[in-house]
């Protein structure tokens, strides 16, 4: 049975909104974690906690995989989880959480380009126009966040741009390489395969243990990052991979157009400033999502 043909629009858009709420909240959680832990420690805790929760799901399935599936699941784990977890944490050492959420909206651009260039994807006019409108909103938000001057663009934003490229690549990997694997298998196994790297860094090459013993607020910071790992990485990736299978990489990546709204709301709650340019950018982004995904006549 083809899931695309039977999936309810309510289910598809419900998953899209739920993912936006979860991932839009991830930036404020990173920000709180960075109050105690380094960027590398935040990324490692995020991956390790997510993998720890999903280990019981993955272990029974490991023996069923062939060599090709092992390879692609490891690659998916690296580009879709490991790399972005560290890149976003490093970016937020110098970027506001709301602005980081805004830059995350570049993912659809890379999903489209990677799909067309490397995965034999096609480019529809309606999709390209919708993405262009969403990207225009993203540019407006970036300029607004830099005081209205492009010259003030923070170098650390490049970490987010690289992370969004990784997300775009992973979107296409999931769609093209895992036709026989369930979303739960993809998520759990890919995270477990990269967990030793995160754990090795966390417990062998960082000050995590020392900070947990002596740093003020370490317990609360750890809780924030574990919530990020378990809910924002493990649980959300299962939903995300399911949505990819139900729709397409381009449609699924539109969740990143909604993430800035949630991220900015959290930023305002935490004392970050929202200017008129943010409102304009948000409106353009929503219009881009609506236009690119409007029903066919």
TrEMBL record:
Protein location: Membrane
Name of this chain's protein: DMT family transporter
Entry-linked Gene3D superfamilies: 1.10.3730.20
Keyword Glycoprotein: no
PANTHER family named among the record's database cross-references: EAMA DOMAIN-CONTAINING PROTEIN, INNER MEMBRANE TRANSPORTER
Family listed: Belongs to the EamA transporter family.
UniProt main location, coarse: membrane
SUPFAM superfamilies: Multidrug resistance efflux transporter EmrE (SSF103481)
Keyword match Transmembrane helix: yes
Organism of origin: Marivirga arenosa
Segments forming domain EamA: 13-142, 156-293
One cellular component (GO) term of this entry: membrane
Parts of the chain that traverse the membrane: 12-30, 42-60, 72-91, 97-119, 128-147, 153-173, 185-205, 217-238, 250-269, 275-292
Key words of the record: Membrane, Transmembrane, Transmembrane helix
Membrane topology annotation: Multi-pass membrane protein
């Amino acid at each position: 049975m083809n899931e695309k043909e039977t999936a309810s629009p309510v289910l598809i858009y419900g998953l899209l909104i739920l993912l936006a709420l979860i991932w839009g909240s991830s930036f404020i959680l990173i920000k709180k974690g960075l109050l105690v832990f380094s960027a590398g420690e935040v990324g490692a805790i995020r991956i390790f906690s997510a993998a720890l929760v999903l280990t019981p799901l993955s272990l029974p399935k490991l023996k069923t995989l062939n060599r090709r599936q092992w390879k692609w699941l490891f690659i998916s784990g690296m580009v879709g989880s490991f790399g972005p977890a560290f890149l976003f944490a490093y970016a937020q050492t110098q970027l506001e959480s709301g602005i980081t959420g805004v830059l995350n909206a570049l993912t659809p651009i890379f999903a489209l380009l990677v799909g067309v260039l490397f995965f034999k994807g096609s480019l529809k006019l309606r999709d390209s126009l919708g993405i262009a409108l969403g990207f225009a909103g993203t540019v407006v938000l970036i300029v607004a966040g830099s005081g209205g001057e492009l010259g003030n663009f923070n170098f650390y934003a490049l970490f987010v741009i690289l992370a969004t490229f990784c997300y775009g690549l992973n979107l296409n990997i999931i769609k093209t390489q895992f036709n026989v694997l369930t979303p739960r298998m993809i998520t759990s196994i890919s995270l477990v395969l990269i967990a030793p790297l995160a754990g090795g860094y966390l417990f062998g090459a960082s000050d995590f243990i020392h900070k947990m013993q002596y740093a003020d607020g370490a317990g609360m910071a750890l809780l924030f990052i574990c919530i990020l790992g378990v809910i924002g990485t493990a649980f959300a990736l299962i939903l995300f991979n399911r949505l990819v299978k139900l729709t397409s990489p381009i449609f699924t990546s539109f969740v990143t157009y909604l993430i800035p709204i949630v991220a900015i709301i959290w930023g305002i709650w935490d004392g970050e400033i929202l200017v008129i340019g943010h409102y304009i950018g948000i409106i353009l982004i929503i219009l881009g999502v609506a236009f690119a995904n409007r029903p066919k006549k």
